[in-house]
Amino acid sequence: MIPQLGTGLAGHFDIPRAKQGGVGGVFFTVWTPCQDQLGVDVGPDYLKPDNTVRDTYESIDLIRTMIDAHDDTLKVATNAQGIRDAFREKKIAALLGMEGSHMLGGSLSTIRTLAALGVRYLTLTHVCHSPFASSAGGGAGTDGSFISPSSLSPTNGLTPIGVELVRELNRLGVMVDLSHTSDGTMSEALDVSEAPVIFSHSGARAVHHHPRNVPDHILDRMGPGKNEGIILSVLYKHFIDPNNATIPRVVDHVEYIAQRTSKKHVGLSSDFDGMSEVVEGMEDTSKWPYLVAEFIRRGWTDDEILDLTGRNLLRVMEDVEEVGKKLRSQRKPSPAIYDKRTDLPGTNWGGPHGAYLPMDVKAIVDKRAARLTDEL
Asked: What are 189-201's pLDDT values in tens digits?
């Protein structure tokens, strides 16, 4: 896979097609499946151990290895300035985004470590609920049938630890992504966030009714003088319109969102290599000029096209970075802990064998101590 990225990969994205499509930057998505997608019972409180966190770090390691192997074309970027630097060097800026807080293992410590590794947005949910937030579910299969998350949601929105997650993302300068989330999560995240939010790949629900698209009452909370975030397009057939999945229909979504917000709050994205069926005419990353041509045909100016194809997102990234810098000067990392965890120690010091250890570790220590006492 690593060498083939430079010569030709099956799917939607590789370097030759990215160059052909005029791609200047790409978020490589860090993603591992929701465990209930794999038939694993995560339990009502999402506490059953699994390998999701390990798999997340392995995904980042693979992506960074892939980028390093093609450093003649790709350049790692972790902020807006890094994207501009790559552009000046005539390279494609390569960034990390992450889809789903189910990959955090119920811990804010994980997102702090991931941010240090370069993750620059976190989608609060994927197609499953998590300890942090409720999901919209997702489309599946060739019929685009809607799947409701199989696990029970603790709330139709953010949980208490989910509120802390949004605040911590703001402090870290990591963008809060609301694609894939339930309407309740969207609304409550907008209530909490001190920084602009993004929708990394979503359409307008008024153009095509699907739970994965953004409803009007959420769009109306974004724009000038409101949350100054951005809604980025999606190219999945069943989110655009299964009966009219065309380039003009994609532009219908973007223009509708621009009318509800402004042309400063929309941008282009895809979900390439994350979907089974694409919009006609947008079969891979080489096709971006055809989509841009439709905006030009509809009268968008050169300046508006520049905003649409990158400047709007750069502005949001810079705003999020500034908020993070300010908040880090004002508050320390959040000490909040998911209150459903059962492995945590008590709050009272209990002597050398009652230390502040996770309860499962403490049980082993106590057992060994008792055996050692018997032997003595």
From this structure: 999 999 999 999 9
**Phi/psi at 212 (nearest 5 deg)?**
-80, -10
- Do residues 221 and 209 touch, judged by C-beta distance below 8 A? no
- Check if the beta carbon of residue 186 is closer than 8 Å to that of residue 178: yes
Residues 18 and 92 sit within 8 Å (Cβ to Cβ): yes
**Biggest CA-to-CA distance, the chain:** 87
Alpha-carbon distance of 35 to 51, in angstroms, equals 9
Per-residue pLDDT reduced to its tens digit, 136-179? 986 444 344 555 665 545 568 999 999 999 999 999 999 999 99
pLDDT(265) > 80: yes
Burial 15-30 (b: 16+ CB within 10 A, else e): bebbeebebbbbbbbb
Q: What is the pLDDT of residues 90-144, one digit of tens each?
A: 999 999 999 999 999 999 999 999 999 999 999 999 999 999 999 998 644 434 4
Using CA atoms, how far apart are residues 333 and 315, in angstroms rounded to an integer?
25
How many whole angstroms separate alpha carbon 216 and alpha carbon 260?
8
Calpha distance 193→204 (Å, rounded): 22
pLDDT value at residue 40: 84
Domains, the chain: 3-342 (3.20.20.140), 343-376 (no CATH)
How far is 69 from 49, CA to CA, in rounded Å?
34
Tell me, letter by letter, the H, E, C secondary structure of 3-64. HHHHCCCCCCCCHHHHHHCCCCEEEEEECCCCHHHHCCCCCCCCCCCCCHHHHHHHHHHHHH
